[in-house]
Amino acid sequence: MKAVVVRKPGDSSVLEVTQVAKPSVKPGWSLVKVLGFGINRSEIFTRQGLSPSVKFPRILGIECVGVIEETTDALHLPVGQKIISIMGEMGRDFDGSYAEYVLLPNEQIYPVMTDLDWKTLATIPETYYTAFGAYKNLKIDSDDVVLVRGGASGVGTAFVKLLKAKFPETKVYASVRNASKKAQLLSVGYDDIVIDDNGLLKTDLTFTKILELVGPATIKNSIAHLEENGIICSCGQLGRKWYLEDFDPIMELQNNVYLTTFYSGNVSQEKIQEMLTYIEQEHVDICPEKVFDLENIKTAHDYLESSQAFGKVIVLIRRKYG
Fold this sequence. Notes:
9 helices; globular
């Protein structure tokens, strides 16, 4: 099969498109024919050698959509079943989805019922699952005023689409480091932008709900713009700072505000199906910003790392299903 192998950490040049043996099934694992997957920043971090537990060579990829090719659980995962898989240790402890086939633990394969096409479905798994979990934990209502810190990211654009599908009148602002992406941000549903200048929001606005995707690097400044009884959900680390330091919860949260998160590793078939049902019932507008094929994986990584990056980037495996 064709796969993308990383033999050593480095820049995108280490992404080697090559032929490798198709995995053989083993007890408790089934083989998935990959139809598509999203590119995630965590995969870039792994490629760069920033995931200490990952040993090379490795096929990256923490998510995929596809169909069961060979099964060891015909009752729950029959051959031909449409599936989503995310997280676990796919692409880290064992080879992931940057390939035509991937061997996965049965408990990490989630059968789904959906009429969404493969391009749409490939845009959803990790990004929309994280955005949907944050949307629920923020307890969004129609009269909220919302900020998405890191609004141009894949999770940010997914979040605003999920929210606006149900609450089109709710005001949603995107933080961005410069105004050049304003037109793009407005086109996906944001009402306006707020400039983020070296970790400081250049506005006097306050918000009832904040989705914090930059993470520990900016969370204190975000909390300073949160209204009393507001909620902030921190579930991203775009600022490349992993831990919150010098944080006195009594003083930082003194305005009676609530800090929560959403961990996309908290996953189940029921939660995934709930998300898909919401997407279909609310007619959420899901469209990737860029679509690549496996041979152009390097270009996909380069785009996501560039200052032009916007929204969700996916790879489709060109088969008859596409």
